[in-house]
Amino acid sequence: DLSKDANSGKAVNEENTKNWYIIPFLKALGYDRRDISAEEPIQYKGDKRLDLYISVDGTPVMLVECKKRGININDPKVVKQLSGYFYEKVAKDNVELAVLTNGDDYIFFTDSVKPNVMDEEPYFSIRLLEMKYGEITELLNRYSKEEITSLDFIEDVKEQKIRRESKSIAEGLVNGKIPNYLIQSVADRV
């Protein structure tokens, strides 16, 4: 039951999720309170507030929209809300990374398809509880405070796509189900 935190018995709402799960994760990435602005004003569709706005040495690097644990963050309405926030912040501050999370699931967006417009599909997603130690370490290194300003998001998008396709191919070969796009690609070249 995600309606209460197992350790405290307190209700899990968006604010508690942000404070109990998301901010500690950001701290594990090396960000401290000076890097994290809460409730950043947004003019998108009225007077709204972005949950967390992350900066490194005064340079904005990431916006984070938080939802309470158990909420489906792949809901198109939730993604559209983040897209509006992204559009405003990329135009104003040149931010390239938008993250949507419920404290367990994290989905990462950028503007790899059309500049200054958040992609409709995330380029990377994780479920912390399902990650292996090495994957968590890699994630902590890639999106850490020390590395985020030098990360080339377009290259990261390409790398994540190659990883997903490679995993799909490997799983297909193990299961005896070769992905259709691979079969078609080979057939087109023969």
How would you describe this structure to a colleague?
Helices cover 40% and strands 19% of the residues. The protein has 190 residues and is an alpha+beta fold. Strands 1-2-3-4-5-6 form a six-stranded mixed sheet, with helices on both faces. A hairpin with a 2-residue loop joins strand 2 (48-56) and strand 3 (59-66). The radius of gyration is 18 Å and the shape is globular. The protein starts with 13 loop residues before the first helix and ends with a helix. The model has no long low-confidence stretch (mean pLDDT 80).
Topology:
Blueprint lengths: L13 H15 L7 E7 L5 E9 L2 E8 L9 H18 L4 E4 L3 E5 L14 E4 L5 H10 L10 H23 L4 H10 L1
Parallel strand pairs: 3-4
Antiparallel strand pairs: 1-2, 2-3, 4-5, 5-6
Unreliably modeled segments: none
Going by helix content, strand content and strand pairing, the class is: alpha+beta
Cα gyration radius (Å):
18 Å
Tell me the series of helices and strands, N- to C-terminal: HEEEHEEEHHH
Q: How far is the first residue's CA from the last residue's CA?
A: 54 Å
Mind describing the biggest β-sheet? 6 strands, mixed
Shape: globular
Number of helices: 5
Q: Write down the overall mean pLDDT.
A: 80
**DSSP strand (E) fraction?**
15-25%
Compute the number of strand runs: 6
